[in-house]
Amino acid sequence: MPKFEVQLSVVENGRRRPEYTLDTDLNGGMTLKDLLAWTKTALIVTSDEVLREEQARGFDEKPLLIVDNRPGKDIKTVNPLGQIEFVSRADFGDILTEAYLGILNRSKVLTGAYIRSHYIFYNGSQIASDLGSLSSWLEASPNFKNGDTIRIVNIQPYARRLELLGVTAQRTQNKREDSGRRNKKKTGTLIKIPNGTYQLTYRSIKAKYKRNVNIRFTFLPGSSLGIVGSFKAGRAGRNSAGRPYLYPTLVFTISERGII
Description:
Helices cover 30% and strands 21% of the residues. Strands 7-6-8-12-11 form a 5-stranded antiparallel sheet.
């Protein structure tokens, strides 16, 4: 008969809680089917107990539930050997302000035009063009709804080039990758990849807030941002070859899960 060993552990505040074990709770023996059923039940009961204890110490009353690495999944469907995680929600206003400050702090300043050109759009409408106007807008307590979109974009026609050159206040660092890397096909052709103010800010926000924030970095044409006619970017938003300028953009999509 094949032998196997299963261990169940609970980690709380960095310390392992040893009281839930096969030896102490099940005398060390049962069928595989019963073992998995017990493990699943123990996982759910234990996670609920730990959550209540942490909430009594001030943890978020309505945290983001992540089951088997899937936010919002029903806790009852957890894999018997899976994972249940509770993540404290974050204030979206704080996230947005931190992202904007990150962009400002990383912006290289020569004439000052670039650092003054970080605009913010809420569902397609401009709501701020500097930190003061952003703070004022947030103080008015906007009513964020599920699916709302907020974009931070630099409207200068040369902003894309700075992003590809890796230009920031701290350094200029060009990065390249094989053009077929994302398709897992080597082509031998190196292309520039973004490594500037917006990309570095995106990485910082994503690393800190993880599942609390739905954010992506991209280049968008002025026509999709509503800036072509409004800000006289280049020749009505087109370069000398007649192609539309692409602007570095951070895109936030509001989700009711994970934010306050």
